[in-house]
Amino acid sequence: MAGSAAEKTFDALGNPVRRRILHILSDRPRAVGEIAHGLPVSRPAVSRHLRILEKVHLVTHEKQGNRNVFRLDGDGWRSAREFLDGFWDVSLARFKIVAENSPRRESPPRGRK
């Protein structure tokens, strides 16, 4: 994955299995086996998806004995939110300029089409 942190985050979110993993982790931290239980992919595939999510800081893990317990990580979400906030700030400012510089069209009188 190339590009900014936000682009990498959105790339990671483009996969439905990874989005489902994030949804599963939204309740509480879970071990890989617990996450894999509710998914239509193998446990090794879940581990690969988790590595991708961890790389973009959407999840983090902690070793607990012989288990890796994953939880959501706010850093990746922050970069995505900053991107979206900036995107909308710019887009809305441009929309305002266009709206203010467009000729006004008068509405037809009521009852006439």
Can you summarize this structure?
This protein has helices at residues 5-13, 16-25, 32-37, 43-55, 74-101, and strands spanning 30-31, 59-64, 67-72.
Explain how this protein is built.
58% of the residues lie in helices and 12% in strands. The protein is of the alpha+beta class and 113 residues long. The chain has a domain at 5-75: Winged helix-like DNA-binding domain superfamily/Winged helix DNA-binding domain (Arc Repressor Mutant, subunit A), CATH 1.10.10.10. The protein has a 3-stranded antiparallel sheet. A hairpin with a 2-residue loop joins β2 (59-64) and β3 (67-72). α1 packs across α5 (74-101). It starts with a helix and ends in a 12-residue tail after the last helix.
Sum up the structure in keywords.
Arc Repressor Mutant, subunit A, 3 strands, 113 residues, 58% helix, 3-stranded antiparallel sheet
N-C termini distance? 53 Å
CATH class of the domain at 5-75: Mainly Alpha
- CATH fold naming of the domain at 5-75: Arc Repressor Mutant, subunit A
**Low-pLDDT sequence parts:** none
Which percent band covers the strand fraction? Answer: 5-15%
Radius of gyration: 22 Å
Mean pLDDT value: 86
Question: What overall form do the CA principal axes indicate?
Answer: elongated
Helicity, as a percent range: 55-70%
Counted by DSSP, the helix tally is 5
Count the beta strands.
3
According to CATH, the homologous superfamily of the domain at 5-75 is Winged helix-like DNA-binding domain superfamily/Winged helix DNA-binding domain
Backbone structural class: alpha+beta
- Architecture (CATH level 2) name of the domain at 5-75: Orthogonal Bundle
| Order of strands across the main sheet | 1-3-2
Q: Major sheet: size, sense and barrel closure? A: 3 strands, antiparallel
Element order, helices and strands? HHEHHEEH
